[in-house]
Amino acid sequence: MCQFCYIGRPNPFLFEFFRRRFHGSVLYRSLPVPRRHTPYFGQPDYRIYELNKRLQQRTEDSDNLWWDAFATEFFEDDASLTLAFCLEDGPKRYTIGRTLIPRYFRSIFEGGVLELYYNMKHPKESFHNTSITLDCDQCTMVTHHGKPFFTKVCTEGRLILEFTFDDLMRIKSWHFAVRSHRELIPRNVMLSQQDPGMLDQLSKNITRQGITNSTLNYLRLCVILEPMQELMSRHKAYALSPRDCLKTTLFQKWQRMVAPPGKRAARKQATETQRIEFGR
Which helix (H) or strand (E) element contains residue 113? Predict the structure, then answer.
């Protein structure tokens, strides 16, 4: 066997030969320097890891500014969030816009949750021209509850996320369809209870399909708040009265309903003229 052939370990003779041969040469000094990769580009699952990490940094003193900064970091300005689940009275589906997303995450913790994170198994990625889609059929939303007693709730479902195809990689669309949930109580809590009334309380669920009552109430409120977002943004942008904002919005919706597909551009120009007239 050749004296320079070593199996399974570096060859010190060859290393010394090349070091002396090429030391000081252009070839030796022009080796590429390893550079740090772009942190988020092309790594949507890592963005979820960052989202979980940011949620763990939440404190009891986190105010609206903290939650707005959280939503700005992970969600696009025109992002939407959809939750689909089935309750006793039938299937439910709620969709909220970007302005209501911070309050949604905050409502989870206001319902007695101490910790929130998302676990994904075998997510699938698909790349498009301007976006990246992450589809995970085995996603688990894990929440730790501290009241009335410690409970770990695992909400299982399908999570579909659409990210922007850029360096920020913020979420454009969030869709979580809940299939089932489990509520886990520590064994020592069950064994330490002797009161039948307390045991009966332990046997009852503290969530509905893994969602707290605080979040459910907020989603129901969003059914009223979401249509008003256009009115409030119009009032803020053009300083119109509430009555004029409502007139303009209804007029534009009526135009979109009756306008043929080929005349939408002309209708849009007429709408801008109408908006200026209302602003006078």
Answer: strand 113-121
Amino acid identity of 120?
M
Q: Identity (one letter) of the amino acid at 234?
A: R
Q: Which residues pair with 90 in a beta bridge?
A: 87
> Is 27 in the same domain as 48?
no
What pLDDT, on a 0 to 100 scale, did the predictor assign at position 11?
55
Residue 15 lies in a domain: yes
CB 39 within 8 A of CB 78: no
Give the DSSP H/E element, type plus range, for residue 184: strand 171-184
**Exposure string over 28-51, b if 16+ CB within 10 A, otherwise e:** eeeeeeeeeeeebeebbeebbeeb
140 and 221 inside one domain: yes
CB 134 within 8 A of CB 124: yes
For helices 101-110 and 64-74, what crossing angle results, to 10°?
120
Packing angle between helix 242-258 and helix 213-238, nearest 10 degrees? 100
Q: If you search the block for the tokens 């000094």, which residue do you land on?
A: 29
What single-letter amino acid sits at 277?
E
- What does the alpha-carbon distance between residue 245 and residue 258 come to, in Å, rounded to a whole number? 20
Condensed to tens digits (0 to 9), the pLDDT of residues 64-74 reads 999 999 999 99
- Average model confidence (pLDDT) for the chain? 80
Quote the domain boundaries for residue 10: 1-31
